[in-house]
Amino acid sequence: IFAMGVAGAKPAPGASDTPQAHDPVRGAVRESQHLTVLRQCFARQAPGGALEKAGFDEALRVAEEQGMLRLRGTPLGHRLYKIFDKDGSGSITEAEFVAGMSKLATGTPEERLQMTFQAYDSAGTGIVHKTDVLNFFQQSWDFAWKTLSEELKTSAIPQARRPSAKDLDDFARSNRDACLGVISADFDALDASRQGHLDQQAFRTFVQSDRTICAQCGTVEFRVPVSFMHATPPPLYPDLAAPPQLAA
């Protein structure tokens, strides 16, 4: 099943949804525990005090342990490394890691918006190009279905009922253009100048809708985030081809 957020989907949670806003004391305790977990994670992956790119992907497991969607191996996760490396040193310090992960987990919507913009504006030009957005979504779409195929191999679904890897790949390929067509139309609707790019204000509108990609077969699903603004399950598009089904 191809699933992505549609216009009018639930907005990203605001600051008022954080524990600190409801109970300052409990929020302070959770914040302290959160920082301790992050520092322990960093120490495991960077015993020398500098987190290299090779260990960064594994360090992102801490985000999943905090209840976030998986970032490991995703296009969005790959772009986080450069965002965290504030001084451009080529490695990430403990302070950079803790600050970055804290923004992901408990940051304000504005902070997560800024991180999302940085992820798409990798060249730092202040605008986001349509070609970059479409490439990003294509990579995310392909990663979702490839990972689902791998997860089905170790699922509780009997092998005789699983679609073949070829069936999943064929479905992903045949529906990829539909995915990109939706994204292209949404982008064009905000590109008033028709110059093939969005400024930060237009991009802000673009990411308000939840476009998380979900590859699903039976009870097994895999979600790939495409922004740091959303972590809730997205609604389904009803007008695409039916995905591979489990055998009877």
Element layout with pairings:
Layout: H1 19-22, H2 24-45, H3 53-59, H4 61-65, H5 75-84, H6 94-106, H7 109-120, E1 127-129, H8 130-153, H9 165-190, E2 197-199, H10 200-206, E3 213-217, E4 220-224
Antiparallel strand pairs: 1-2, 3-4
Helix pairs in contact: 2-3, 2-6, 5-7, 8-9
Tags for this entry?
two-stranded antiparallel ribbon, 4 strands, 248 residues, mainly alpha, 6% strand, two-stranded antiparallel sheet, disordered N terminus, globular, 10 helices
Structure write-up:
There is one protein chain. The chain is mostly helical and 248 residues long. It has a two-stranded antiparallel ribbon with strand order 1-2. It has a two-stranded antiparallel sheet with strand order 3-4. α5 crosses α7. The chain has helices spanning 19-22, 24-45, 53-59, 61-65, 75-84, 94-106, 109-120, 130-153, 165-190, 200-206, and strands at 127-129, 197-199, 213-217, 220-224. The longest helix has 26 residues, at 165-190.
How large is the share of residues in beta strands? 5-15%
Major sheet description: 2 strands, antiparallel
Average pLDDT metric:
81
Please tell me how large the radius of gyration is. 19 Å
Q: Give the N-to-C terminal Cα separation.
A: 18 Å
Counted beta strands = 4
Uncertain runs are 1-22, 232-241
Helix tally equals 10
Helix content: 40-55%
How would the global form be characterised?
globular
N-to-C order of helices and strands: HHHHHHHEHHEHEE
Class by SSE composition: mainly alpha
Q: Please give the order of strands in the largest beta sheet.
A: 1-2
